[in-house]
Amino acid sequence: MNILDDNARALKPAGGVLDQVRAGEPTVWFNPSLPQASSAFAKIDLPVMGVEEAVSRWRRFAPLLACLFPDAHGTEGRIDSPLLPLSPDLAIRITDGLSKTAFVKADHALPLTGTIKARGGVYEVLVYAEELALRTGLIGNKASYDILATETARSLFAQHTILVGSTGNLGFSVGVIGRALGFNVEVHMSSDAKEWKKARLRNLGVRVVEHEADYSVAVAGARDSASKRGSCHFVDDENSRLLFFGYSAAALDLAAQIKTSGTEVSEQNPIAVFLPCGVGGAPGGVAFGLKSIFGDAVQCVFVEPVASPCMLVQLAAGTGRPVSVYDFGLDNKTAADGLAVPQASMLVAEAMQHLVNAVVTVSDDSLFSWVGTLFDEAGMKLEPSAASGFAALARYLKGLRMQGGRLPSACIVWTTGGSQLPAEEFEKVLAQARVL
Ligand SMILES: Cc1ncc(COP(=O)(O)O)c(C=O)c1O
Fold it and tell me: In this structure, are strands 358-362 and 232-235 parallel, antiparallel, or unpaired?
């Protein structure tokens, strides 16, 4: 039996949703076996205390980041973004009248790289730098970490190479911090990666290896290259716990911002958070952190392009073995380059089967259209991937209402990248939005 028949059989219970997935139509899949959050974490092979550890490590490194990136004014080395309320008018349009309260968690404007991937990528490089510095005695347990910005540290790091496979934004995040510390950095990029993203990396002094193939092949290329050399670290976007926990720390920042906004969060007044999903690490880490704080009072919704719903098909199939979007006759071709991933991380899928409320798929046209609307009406500069939450919101809320689920009293759309798009690239995206 070929894998296609096999997977098709395994997926029968999901019925109509998977027919829509196969047909490349936008759809919403609700997790049929979501446990109560109180019992979910016992089923997951990732420690909740990893979130607190990541928060502490980010704090430890803040003085170093402030020293390395003096241009990131006012951040004091904190890699976080604002929570922006949307006007009631825009909120009503986005939610099709089902909610008056909506916020944007503005990671499109995250310090350093303007993308959520910095939360994981920068974090993992910091962990590697810390390990090397401790191992060589450069820092003792109580030392101030800004010593890692000195020439002594740079010459230590210059003997090491960091490798990563990426569609663009993870590579950039690893490149920015890796080069700032003095590491050699090698980024393997998929055919979806935009030329300007490659050029930007080369300008940082990063070695860019181009693959005429998809994201999974680029990651495999980086893994292979790392296995053939010493003194290196491979940032494994498909399997890294460090990336996962780096992202998860964002949940605490968001929780504090929600409190400041005066938004009540309880099981009677839940919030819904919409997270663009590629391989799954960024949305998975954030969802893990959010569920650990808010329990069932937060609904975590992942959003994927219709051509690349890798997490949806994996969760619908069950996590017994990996499946890919190609098994469903999809081509993984989408303008949302950061989300052009054929196969989800199994590490993340295994955890998310117990935490994610739903996965929504959206068309590329809807992404362009929302990029245009958000720019015109809220002045936000988003890349297509980052607008996917807006395109998903109304479909999720309508589906939830049909199922008799509790509608959230506030929706949060995580915008995951875009503020650093070069002007001419953003013009191209806007031009596409205008012809729709
Ligand atoms: C802008 C943007 N949003 C979301 C994501 C999804 O992150 P992940 O691949 O960890 O699911 C990516 C991934 O590169 C991205 O570039």
Answer: unpaired
